[in-house]
Amino acid sequence: MKKLRMVVFDVDGTLVKVESWKLLNRELGTWDRERKYAKRFFQGNITYEDWARLNVSLWKGLPQERVQRIVNDIPYTDGARDTITTLRRKGLVVVLLSAGLSIVTDRIRREIEVDDSLANELVVKEGFLTGEVKVNVSFHNKDEVLDGILKKFGATPDECAAVGDDETLIPLFEKVGLGIAFNPRKKVVEKHADMVVKGNDLRQVLPHLL
């Protein structure tokens, strides 16, 4: 493996302690309806894009400010800030790549400086959600999305590490030079990672990245 130049982080369950989609649906009172869409996706009856659009359609007309308040209260994983700042101080590029929502990654970018991020964007008009979403990152395409990020920063897959906990990381783990499963949710995620780190503090991944 070449010397690492870039680290790509998953967000939900990795940099923050919760799944943002699930939290928002619970807080906004749409959890029961969204679960039906999730079931259809995992049964293979609809695409991830369909699932995201159906989910966000439930929030049509809500004030963006209400959603932002929920997102602002999402707790960081212990050590997340120190992990990112340490990596960047050592000269590594840090990128957030999430199949969640950009309203979450944008908050992290405001509070903890990173080099780039990509997630799915809620469409807002005059301060209210339109019920539409721009899907940039789906359940299965993080490896394809990474190609554009690598090109932007002039890096190769071998010079990149990926850190995350769920099945969206599997295509990334198969592509990059180093895949770290941090508190993986399922055994299949562990199986595709180069190493597994279990614990309450994200700084535990630093020895493997530095």
Protein architecture, described:
By secondary structure, the protein is α/β, with parallel strands linked by helices. It has a single domain, classed as 3-Layer(aba) Sandwich (Rossmann fold), CATH 3.40.50. The chain has helices at residues 20-27, 31-42, 48-57, 64-72, 80-89, 102-111, 142-153, 170-175, 187-192, 206-209; strands at residues 6-9, 93-101, 116-125, 128-134, 160-164, 178-182, 195-197. A seven-stranded mixed beta sheet has the order 4-3-2-1-5-6-7, sandwiched between helices. The protein is globular and about 50 Å long. The two termini are 13 Å apart.
Q: State the helix count.
A: 10
Poorly predicted sequence stretches spanning 5 or more consecutive residues: none
Gross geometry: globular
CATH topology tier name: Rossmann fold
Second-tier CATH architecture: 3-Layer(aba) Sandwich
Q: How do the strands line up in the largest sheet?
A: 4-3-2-1-5-6-7
- In CATH, the homologous superfamily goes by the name HAD superfamily/HAD-like
The proportion of residues forming helix, as a percent range, comes to 40-55%
CA-CA gap between termini? 13 Å
Structural class: alpha/beta
| Largest sheet geometry | 7 strands, mixed
Give the ordered list of helices and strands: EHHHHHEHEEHEHEHEH
Number of individual domains: 1
Q: Provide mean pLDDT, rounded.
A: 94
Fraction of residues in β-strands: 15-25%
Q: How many beta-strand runs?
A: 7
Q: Class, according to the CATH hierarchy?
A: Alpha Beta
